[in-house]
Design a protein that fits this description.
single chain; alpha+beta; Tumour Suppressor Smad4; five-stranded mixed beta sheet; 29% strand
Length: 314
């Protein structure tokens, strides 16, 4: 890989989750890196899910390739289990509980002292240990790896656990063998797992943490595949963004128009249900939270009620 001017580009593997989160491992041209649990390897990841010799990464003739070395739990690139794959800038690799991203470091620089690299990784590990609970196995930022990508990685690698996501709210996504079976926001189970999941996966900022599997049981579980859930959530996100120019902010007060001149008999039962929610809860956020329908259908109904002057924003 080289720049337009012919200067070789240099790359590094940046840890965006795992023990060394925040650390970088520079790739040297024409040198392979062997990753595994064994202490004599180039990149040592001491954890149960990593094999003694797990994978090797080679930067040669401008190309970067990764090869699984017959590991027990597999090597994943962008959510797909691979035996061998060519890597490009931005690709994400999952080995054990570590997620590494291939990043560009600019024009090729002076050789890096391997002892300095290892020291910086240990400093990153110490910083990560200071901010991580003992119970968590993976942490990171969703700015670095969007939640749909993260869930795809967990699905392919059949992870068990509870994915806890924090921004202004706390979302929890429950995983069983990589399959999403429940979700909740701020312990508000009245939202239902489907609506909670659809909202959580649209969050673009915040921290995530994969905690050990929870024995808690739920009355209702999601039964769609992770891929189907993600596709539906992202479709709803696109449709909600389309509606947003016609919607008031979540906390804006909504009220039934007074005097109400538009005839109620022209409304469908679904429209009347949403009109009742406006009367009872008085904001877009309150209406969406208490509606039995999904956020997009409910928001579309609010827009229609406002256009027909049944509902007004204050």
């Amino acid at each position: 890989m080289s720049t337009p001017g012919g200067t070789a580009k240099s790359f590094a593997l940046k840890f965006i989750s795992g023990k060394y989160q925040g650390g970088e491992f520079p790739l040297k041209a024409n040198k392979q890196i062997v990753v595994g649990r064994s202490s004599e390897l180039d990149m040592v990841l001491v954890e149960d899910m990593v094999s003694r010799k797990h994978a090797k990464i080679l930067f040669s003739d401008g190309a970067i390739t990764i090869e699984d070395l017959g590991s027990t739990n597999g090597t994943f690139v962008n959510g797909e289990k691979v035996k061998q794959a060519k890597l490009k800038e931005g690709d994400r690799i999952l080995i054990g509980t570590s997620i590494l991203k291939l990043v560009h470091q600019g024009a090729e620089s002076a050789p890096v002292d391997e002892s300095v690299v290892k020291q910086k990784l240990e400093e990153a590990a110490a910083a990560q240990a200071a901010r991580t609970t003992k119970a968590s196995s993976m942490t990171g930022k969703i700015e670095e790896i969007p939640l749909p990508d993260l869930l795809q990685l967990f699905h392919t690698s059949k992870k068990n656990g509870v994915l806890v996501v924090n921004n202004a709210h706390e979302g929890r996504i429950y995983l069983r063998q990589g399959r999403v079976y429940y979700a909740v926001i701020d312990d508000n189970h009245n939202l239902g797992p489907q609506k909670s999941f659809n909202r959580i996966v649209t969050w673009e900022e915040g921290d995530f943490e994969l905690r050990p599997a929870d024995t808690q049981e739920f009355m209702v579980e999601l039964d769609s595949s992770t891929e189907a859930l993600l596709m539906d959530a992202l479709r709803q996100l696109d449709e909600f963004k389309r509606l947003q120019p016609n919607l008031p902010p979540m906390a804006t007060a909504l009220r039934i128009a007074q005097p109400l001149t538009a005839p109620l008999k022209e409304l469908t039962p679904e429209h009347l249900d949403v009109l009742q929610l406006v009367h009872n809860h008085g904001s877009l956020g309150g209406v969406l939270d208490h509606s039995d329908g999904d956020d997009v259908l409910t928001a579309e109904t609010v827009v229609q009620l406002m256009k027909r002057d049944y509902v007004r924003a204050e």
